[in-house]
Amino acid sequence: MNRSEQTEQKQLLPVIGVVAGAGPHQTVLTIVSGTPAVAVPSPTAFSSSPHQLAYQQAQQFRHHQQQQQQQQLQTFWASQMQEIEQMSDFRNHSLPLTRIKKIMKVDEDVRMISAEAPVIFAKACEIFVLELTLCSWIHTEENKRRTLQKNDIVAAISRTEVFDFLVDIIPRDELKEEGLGVTKAAPFL
User: Fold this and answer.
1) How many C-beta atoms lie closer than 10 Å to residue 30's C-beta?
2) Is position 187 within any domain?
3) CA–CA separation, 101 vs 121, rounded Å?
4) Most buried by CB count within 10 Å: which residue of 3, 47, 52, 160?
5) How far apart, in whole angstroms, are the C-alpha atoms of residue 31 and residue 37?
6) Per-residue pLDDT for 7 more than 70?
7) Domain that holds residue 128
8) pLDDT of 9 strictly over 60
9) Is there a domain that residue 188 lies in?
10) Is 35 in contact with 112 (CB distance < 8 Å)?
11) Do 18 and 65 belong to one domain?
12) Are residues 15 and 70 in the same domain?
C-alpha cells in the first residue's frame, strides 16, 4: 500500500465526537467519515420519561449528598489533626485515664504501662467516638430525623469499612433490618 492509499483509508475511518452544550438529554454524537457529518441523538435523548428523569434527579441528589458527607468527614479529620498538632497540655482529657488504664490491663499480656500510652489511647478513643457519632448523624440526617437512634449507629458501622471490626458486636437481626446490601464507603483517612 502506497502513501496516498494509506492517507485515503485514514480519511474514511470514522471519527466520533460529542457536541458540547446540547443539554443533558440532547447530547449529539457526530460521526464523520469521508462523507458529510451525521448527527445521532444520544440514548438519553430517547429516554426522557418522567420516571427516568426522576430517577436521574434522585441519583444526582444522592451523589451530591455523598459529596457533602465526604466533605464533612474531611473537615472533621482536618480539625482533629489541627487540634492534635496544637495540643500542648496533655493532662486534660475527655476520658478518665484511670478507666483507660483498666481497659488496657484487661489484656493478660500487658504488665506495665508507660505514662504516655494512656494519654495517646484516650485521644484515640475520643476521636473514634467522635467519628462514629458523625457517621451515625449523617445517617440520621439522610432519614430526615433530628434524633440519633441505635439503627443509625448500626448503619454507620455497616456502611464504613473502618468500623468492620464492630460488625460482630451488632446483633444479626439489626444488621438484617439495616440491610447490608448497601455498598461500603471507602476509608476516610
Assistant:
1) 13
2) no
3) 9
4) 160
5) 6
6) no
7) 50-178
8) no
9) no
10) no
11) no
12) no
Q: What is the CATH number of the domain that holds 169?
A: 1.10.20.10
Q: Can you point out the beta strands (E) in 1-78?
A: 15-19, 28-33, 35-41
Q: What is the pLDDT of residue 184?
A: 44
What are the cell numbers at 186? 471507602
- Contact assessment for residue 189 and residue 77, using Cβ atoms and an 8 Å cutoff: yes
Place of cell 447530547: 27
pLDDT 10s digits, 66-80: 788 788 888 988 988
Counted domains in the chain: 2
- Please count the other Cβ atoms lying within 10 Å of the Cβ belonging to residue 147: 6
Query: What count of residues does the chain have?
Result: 189
Instruction: Please give the grid coordinates belonging to residue 4.
Output: 496516498
Residue matched to cell numbers 454507620: 156
132: number of Cβ within 10 Å: 17
